[in-house]
Specification:
The protein is of the alpha+beta class and 244 residues long. 46% of the residues lie in helices and 19% in strands. Helix 1 packs antiparallel against helix 4.
């Protein structure tokens, strides 16, 4: 059979059509890994904070130890209205039924305007959380650091409190969490069953909705491999065109 030379024009047309097809391929989706990692980190952070607050509140509420603390923090269930926010008053007040988080710290770090928790008497199970009005270097002939406090909703100041009776400074208030914890404490078994049921339901939902997502990711990966193969073929075509 006689040798038939290739049609250079057809070869060039095929190469150009391949290049056109290469550039007309849909662009692969942008990498979503950083976004997913950020979302996961944010979710872990939020869940961690919630677990810390709820677990700490439960542990410290159920504990019988009057000197209970949780990584340097103590939780208190507010029973009175002495620190309810007042119109035109300072910020940071809280209401009966809230849970307040108190950070243990040296009394020397406390300043007027801070809200502190202290024991007004000899019973460590009885605490007050009021705002510091001023400090004293001496009271009733006794030298030392004293704190004059007052509830935001009260009309009169408290008797000065010595530094050694100060527990710490209030850093956070969780509205109505005390009422919730008191209800849970009174019905611990039903709430434990309810919590386990909710957790199982959410885990099942997460698994169910994660299956389509994994399928989409597998499809995207397969499409990426196919695109890589097409790019390799296109590179070969370019080499052939350069040779011609």
């Amino acid at each position: 059979m006689p040798y038939v030379p290739p049609n250079i024009g057809e070869l060039l047309a095929d190469v150009e059509s391949a290049e056109t097809a290469e550039f007309s391929q849909p662009a692969p989706p942008a990498q979503e890994a950083p976004k997913r990692n950020f979302q996961r980190a944010a979710n872990v952070l939020v869940v961690g904070i919630c677990v810390f607050l709820v677990a700490g509140s439960l542990v410290l509420t159920l504990s019988k130890n009057p000197d209970k603390s949780y990584f340097g923090y103590r939780f208190y269930h507010v029973l009175t209205t002495s620190m309810e926010p007042q119109a035109g008053g300072p910020a940071g007040g809280f209401r009966a039924g809230d849970i307040i988080v108190v950070k243990r710290m040296a009394p020397e770090e406390i300043r007027p305007g801070d809200i502190i928790t202290f024991t007004p008497g000899d019973d460590p199970r009885v605490s007050l959380t009021h705002r510091v009005v001023r400090t004293l270097d001496e009271y009733d002939g006794q030298r030392g650091l004293w704190f004059v406090t007052k509830g935001d909703a009260n009309n009169a100041e408290d008797i000065p409190t010595p530094a050694e009776r100060v527990v710490g400074r209030k850093v956070l208030a969780i509205p109505k969490a005390g009422l919730v914890l008191q209800t849970i404490k009174s019905n611990i078994v039903p709430f434990a069953v309810l919590g386990a049921s909710i957790f199982g339901f959410l885990a099942a939902l997460s698994y169910f909705f994660a299956k389509p997502k994994r399928a989409r990711e597998a499809a995207v990966a397969a499409a990426g491999q196919e695109t890589a193969g097409q790019e390799t073929q296109t590179d070969n075509d370019r080499d052939w065109k350069g040779w011609l």
